[in-house]
Write a structure and sequence with these properties.
The structure is a homodimer.
Chain A (H helix, E strand, L loop, with lengths): L28 H25 L3 E8 L5 H9 L7 E5 L5 H4 L5 H5 L7 E5 L8 H4 L5 H20 L2 E9 L2 H13 L11 H6 L1 H15 L6 E5 L3 H19 L17
Parallel strand pairs in A: 1-3, 1-4, 2-3, 4-5
Helix pairs in contact in A: 1-10, 2-10
């Protein structure tokens, strides 16, 4: 499938040039769903090896506007693997304790332990996205954060954490449909927060902030990928493919033990 | 199916009287597997409502000797639900930081947040099991822990945490088979730790410690259940049935929102 979604280091991205409905690299929906099934199964097996090896971990960072499908990605790609060895951390409005530390503190605390897959549903990138758009800290502080994030992620990768970052790219029109669904279905009302519409009003500012983030923080060691996300099946297929290939490249191995299995008698 | 596995408050249990291969309450294996499938699916749906409601949580505590199937239970019962809203905490040998606190500190830290299911793979009960058998703290301290645990769990339940505790009851013969499998299959060597055989040598002492735990800590608010676990399908069927019924009794509901959905226009 190649890797058409990856942002090269230093590359400038215009999100308006990227079609959130693009499925060109995927073939038909049926084919993509078939591959997703196989990928999810392979990810499960590879996770087992990662856990057995116990030396490295995988961190999957999901960012995107409201309704872009961060929860749906977890379900679609990681449900076969299950909760054993996969930990999801949702980054909400920071607590007082978290605010009393630097912005990377809570991300570091949630870093996946060796042998596991960690998924960040939102992440430290909120601190150069919503925090920037709403001007919650001075612009000069934001400016320093891109390099701080890159250094932080570099340190993680040098210590055995492989990092994958996916920006779920949905259109403003698709978001309207999904928000409307939440209004129309009483079972989905709880997912809707009238305050979310403020972010929608600042759509352009958010896209600018995303573009800067993609430009400044897609590194050799922790690249961003932009995932067309208007179609859920396409979004899942792209991400599952990258996760599977990444785990295959990591090639975790069952550890050799230091004792002789034949010498042991169980009584 | 009734609830034949539950230990009544104050009840004295002799584990040697309970057959680890018992499947009397379950019908045929095929029937039990069919129900497991339906139960796992129902648990997924109920978890979604629990998450939407966001007010209460479920804590599932799994205890048992090595190879009794704690990991297997997580896979068998909770893989359909997936990692979103389910968090597994494995209680390993305590760290220096954990040892510098009371024995309930790390359990409290891992308590499930509202709206989620937390699974303890081993738990604070290790502090009245292995710690007791290996005499790692004075007997007079152990003696106080049963009531301390009961008070801790009572506090949790009074604050919205429903607690289910399962002792996975396997026979010494079944453990031998499972340990031997780990020795025979190079892919399973990493699961085998020669030190584990020490626990096996103290099998009788462990059973005594389990019996005291079951007698002293099966409360109205947080009952123990003894699950015959020599047969994996039976173990999963029993636990899934209890989890499902417990969530059904909790009956989490989609919250009513304070705003009028019809008044909101998405532009």
């Amino acid at each position: 499938m190649g890797d058409p979604y990856r942002v090269k280091p230093g590359q400038k991205v215009k999100l308006s040039d990227i079609d959130p409905r693009d499925t060109d690299a995927l073939g038909s929906e049926d084919e993509a769903r078939g591959r997703l099934y196989l990928d999810a199964t392979a990810i499960d097996t590879l996770q087992d090896r990662l856990y057995a090896e116990g030396k490295r971990s995988l961190l999957v960072i999901l960012q995107g506007m409201d309704t872009s499908g961060k929860d749906g990605t977890v379900r679609g790609v990681f449900n076969t693997t299950g909760p054993l060895g996969v930990q999801v951390t949702a980054f909400r409005r920071p607590s007082e304790e978290e605010m009393a530390h630097d912005f990377l503190w809570r991300a570091h605390l949630a870093a996946p332990r060796r042998g596991t897959i960690g998924i960040f549903n939102r992440s430290h990138y909120e601190d150069v996205l919503v925090v920037k758009v709403r001007k919650l800290v001075p612009a000069s502080d934001i400016e320093k954060r891109y390099d701080q994030i890159n250094a932080f992620e570099k340190m993680l990768t040098e210590n055995g954490v492989t990092i994958l970052k996916f920006m779920l790219h949905i259109s403003k029109a698709e978001q309207r449909e999904r928000l409307q669904e939440r209004l129309d279905d009483p079972k989905k009302h709880w997912k809707f927060n009238p305050g979310d519409l403020d972010d929608r009003k600042s759509w352009g500012d958010f896209m600018d902030a995303y573009e800067t983030m993609l430009h400044r923080c897609s590194t050799e060691w922790a690249p961003w990928r932009i995932v067309p996300a208007d179609r859920k099946w396409a979004r899942n297929a792209v991400i599952a493919d990258v996760v599977r290939k990444t785990l295959e490249d990591m090639n975790p191995t069952y550890p050799k033990v230091s004792w002789d299995p034949k010498s042991i008698k169980i009584v």
